[in-house]
Specification:
With 145 residues, this protein is α/β, with parallel strands linked by helices. 42% of the residues lie in helices and 17% in strands.
Length: 145
Amino acid sequence: MNVVVIISGHGEFSQGLQSLIKGVLGDVDNFYAVPYAYDMSSAVFRDQLECLVTSQEPNSAFLVLTDMKGGTPFNKSVELKLKGYDIEVLTGTNFNMVVAAIEARDDVDTMPELVEIVLEQGKESISAFVIEDTQISFEEEDDGI
């Protein structure tokens, strides 16, 4: 299965993630960023996304990772899915989701397997820093108030 990973979002979200991925993983095949510029019409955005999809190898499947549910990148990706393209659309994208999509896509047999891996990795990567040891000491300094 040839899976093309596309990240999309408002402003520079997708280019920032793409840059981070390149810095960590190097150049990645079949991996694209499709930004939605604030001054762009939703029709132009949809046309750019559809042009990318139709320019890929026949029988390619697409995993589109978007920044937020209900935004133009999400809505237009869903629109293309409803139009009949082999697209799965995920939202709330974080760095670990993108890495999981890229690394797992060659190891799975079906798109639902890939979606499950990507969603699980995204959830597992969300956390808060918590200080476990509450015994914090501060050294006294003479020049304080």
